[in-house]
Design goal:
Number of strands: 9
Order of helices and strands: HEEHEHHEEEEHEHEHH
Shape: globular
Oligomer: single chain
Distance between the termini: 20 Å
Radius of gyration: 15 Å
Strand order of the largest sheet: 8-6-5-1-3-4-9
Helix content: 40-55%
Amino acid sequence: KLFLNMIMNANASVYVQTPYFIPSSSLLNALETTALSGVRVMLMITGNADKPIPFWVAQTYFDTLLTAGAEIYLYKKGFLHSKVLIVDDTISTVGSCNMDIRSFHLDYEINAVYYKKEITSLLIEQFYNDLKFCYKVNKNERKKISMFKRLRNSLFRIFSPLL
């Protein structure tokens, strides 16, 4: 509910860093709606997966977000383990909660919420530093993904509540 509230109340920007991105339908809708409303939505996930299946499933959400205008980046300098959500340069949350169904509903994850601009500014600065080591996902390249990979990713998405 915290993540949904933060995203849905964004006016200018939403920055997300998470190693695992398997959002619930409500969270995906919030990100999509926010991007469609003109808010800059930037999602950064690891590009060097430690577990292939969650990475494959994450890719099944990309087209929806890209079509809505969100930006997606794959971090390539090692494994991205940051779990950060920053909204409008004013509020941020950092903790152990991945942006996935398992973290939200099955595991006992915890985050700290910061209403301090100084902390949020430091987190934004780190986000942009990490962006230097990212590959930007684009719609044209997504269209070139083989039918086999699309099918594989979609089949594993059936198990997303367990991932």
